[in-house]
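Hi R.,

Here's the chain you asked about this morning:
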Amino acid sequence: MFKLQGTVKVLHPTVQVSEKFSKREFVVTESSGMYPQDILFQLTQDKCALLDGYNVNDGVEVSFNLRGREWTSPQGEVKYFNSLEAWRIDRLGTANTGMPASGPSAMNLAPVTAASAEMTVEKEDDDLPF
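And here is the predicted structure, written out as tokens:
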């Protein structure tokens, strides 16, 4: 399992390859290094719907597996192909912090009351190991 963070650059529609197989491709630009990299990912079958609700320029974290396969051409030449099979997509700002991508809301900005502060102090004095 691998993870990559970046910005959505391209969103392709779902393609019905055969009666039993569908796929959807998308590109994420990873720019943490000196040179930005455009990485092509693929979703298959029911995972194609994971991109619904995402737009170009959205910050995402993609969880994916590296897949490889062998193919023999009609001329007998053997070739190898790799694909990045995405299986989870999270918006940056929500996956790690639990906070919506739009920022904090009034619900999670409530001031700490004296009673809740006292409860916190009592818990700190507790000698339980967990």
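One quick note: The two ends are 31 Å apart (CA to CA).

Cheers,
M.
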